[in-house]
What we know:
This protein is α+β, with helices and mostly antiparallel strands. It is 25% helix and 35% strand. It has a single domain (3-142), classed as Immunoglobulin-like, CATH 2.60.40. Strands 2, 4, 5, 8, 9 and 10 form a 6-stranded mixed sheet that branches. A 4-stranded antiparallel sheet has the order 1-3-7-6, with no helix packed on it.
Amino acid sequence: MQAGERARGCAEGSVRSTRGRARRRGGLARARAAWILVGLAGLSGCADDGGPRLTDVVPRAARRDALVAITGHRLCGTGGDCARAAGEVQLGLDPPTVRAVVMSYSDTVAQVVIPSVAPVGDTVLVVTVNERSSNALAFEVLP
């Protein structure tokens, strides 16, 4: 399964974003619906496979050439050995996707630079380590 297919199938990142928007609008019913979708995603084969899991990106929107920090766990694979892990940080699921430039990397935090060729607008960040892809985190490339 390709990185984009797995991230698209596991809606953790997009549902988390939806829940926040629903609360800001006062739509508790929408927030509950989003959590139901998370549960259904778990039933549809999105169980934890031991791959990387992303929890946050700071800032959530940045210009090209900006440094952002991605937090999560198992960013160096199941063994946590960053020296032996092979992976990448990708912006986008559908073409054109681009790879972020990794500045520093540990099992819980990756600092990356948004590439100068990244398309402006809403996208997602996905980490792939040892052929296992993470959930997708919502991100926006600013003009």
